């Protein structure tokens, strides 16, 4: 097992991390399917001012032998995600850091895992449970739009830019997670498709038309060449979603 630590968070050693991944009681399970399992754990801090640290573990669950082959060629999703995470961070984008990574043996293969800090609640959850009201709702819409605008201005296409992959910290600032699908932005059409995905998931989760227009104003504050807010709203509504899943206007 390999691991990588940063100085921003107090982590146990690699053997203790391996034990926690296997045995620590989950605080919450975010995802559990044939491809991956994502869950939150809480570890006690004995040499820190804070009582505990919340971590999110993502372990890839598909065929271990296939995972090992992908790892050998540098094509494993965990490796892609680590590379994209570093590139976005170097470019000044707000992305939740990967603070540890490793591989656990599984027969002739392995299962790779990533650890990040628990950086906040997802925008999806906040929209669903009605936590965003009044001024916080307005500022969140603009902040999320500004983050999307910085992606475009930086030349990045994030195919999975959706509400479940944006977390909001206690100060109301958004950060990206699960960025393995990030690639270089090649065209304005790609930018519109990325914004269409965000618009589609925001509308699905309860964002109003006003919320989404505020978000687009945040995009325009950071990225040029997208026309007026009216032009952008119309273009986003007509753009196909990444992966050919219809347009953002579906269901309006």
Give a summary of the structure in a few sentences:
The protein is of the alpha+beta class and 252 residues long.
Strand order of the largest sheet: 1-2-3-5-4
Helix/strand class: alpha+beta
Report, as a whole number of angstroms, the end-to-end distance.
49 Å
CATH superfamily of the largest domain: Transferase(Phosphotransferase) domain 1
**What number of domains?**
2
Q: Which sheet architecture does the biggest sheet show? A: 5 strands, antiparallel
Q: Give the beta-strand count.
A: 10
In N-to-C order, the SSE pattern is HEEEHHEEEHHEEEEHHH
The first-level CATH class of the largest domain is given as Mainly Alpha
The percent range for helix content is: 40-55%
Shape-level CATH architecture of the largest domain: Orthogonal Bundle
Describe the structure.
This protein is α+β, with helices and mostly antiparallel strands and 252 residues long. It has two domains: 14-117, Phosphorylase Kinase, domain 1 (2-Layer Sandwich), CATH 3.30.200.20; 121-238, Transferase(Phosphotransferase) domain 1 (Transferase(Phosphotransferase), domain 1). It has helices at residues 14-23, 64-72, 77-90, 123-129, 134-153, 188-204, 209-222, 229-238, and strands at residues 28-32, 36-44, 52-60, 100-106, 109-117, 121-122, 156-158, 166-168, 174-176, 182-184. The strands form three sheets. A five-stranded antiparallel β-sheet has the order 1-2-3-5-4. Helix 5 packs across helix 7 (209-222). The protein is globular and about 55 Å long. The N and C termini lie far apart (49 Å).
